[in-house]
Amino acid sequence: MERSITMMWNHYSEPLSLDDIADSAKLSKFYFSRIFRSVTGTSPGRFLSAIRLYSAKRLLLDTSLSVTDITYMVGYNSLGTFTTRFRRSVGVTPARFRTLFRGGRPSFPPFAGDSRRPSGAVHGMMVLPPSNSPLRVYVGVFSSPIVEGMPVSCDIIDSPADCCRLREYRLASVPVGEWYVRAVAIAVCGAGLDPRPWARPGFVGDGRPFAIRAGEEVEIDIPMRDMDLTDLPILLALPELDQQVFPGHRPIVQPRPELASGRRNVI
Fold first, then answer.
1. Which domains occur in the chain, in start order?
2. Where do runs of H (alpha helix) occur along 17-148?
3. Cα–Cα distance for residue pair 119/218, rounded to 1 Å
């Protein structure tokens, strides 16, 4: 599985088929698809789409390339299709995402949900690994295992360095239905960090799938862990638009040399 995912990251700009991806794992496409879903929680095609959209986020923030150029660079042949999928997964259009980032949008407030709909709540403890840096944790409820789009309920929790690594969360106004709770932790300062500290989460966590009935409160603990190759990229517009976490950061506005020359960006 890791070999096939590495191949997707290295060749996402190309028209990869399921046969191509399964061949990299030396498995039949039917068996490969079944095993891939059991490991990652989604299909190979959806994982590849997530890689492409995540890569588009990076290009929108790190370069001055046009949205049209980025569309083709990440493997899409239609600007309309790319824009629709980006908006559905990230929560805003590509152009709006870039504009909000460069304009320094303030930190997002806790999400209140829709109090008019029958709903319940989910709460529990997040178990964070040791960290020498303060962490900002984004926790939300989503309709699928993929952290994308707008969560139906979410919150942002700060965890100072060297504090107790058990952090309590509670998400209210979760509509009746079946959901997934996901959490992403970002280190907000410290020596040796990537100058773009939001580029990759420090820790991720997921609780078991759960169902909510009206007036019910479900308890789900979320063990946090290091992100690995089999985890889907984070497509949600946060933390990139939560710039109060990273004061003084400014995006690079010139294309990197390999992008300007048309070479594929290998991650």
1. 2-103 (1.10.10.60), 119-245 (2.60.40.2990)
2. 18-24, 29-40, 44-62, 67-73, 79-90, 94-102
3. 11
Contact 55, 267 (CB under 8 A): yes
Q: Tokens in use for 252?
A: 């690079």
CA distances from 198 to 129, 152, 232, 237, 245 (A): 18, 23, 15, 11, 9
To the nearest 5 percent, what fractions of the chain are helix, strand and coil?
A: 30, 20, 45
CB 27 within 8 A of CB 21: no
When pLDDT is averaged across residues 193-222 and rounded to a whole number, the result is: 78
Q: Can you give the C-alpha Rg of the chain in angstroms? A: 19
Is the separation of the CB atoms in 36 and 1 below 8 Å? yes
> How do residues 46-62 score in pLDDT, each as one tens digit?
999 999 999 999 899 88
Which backbone phi and psi does 9 adopt, to 5 degrees? -60, -35
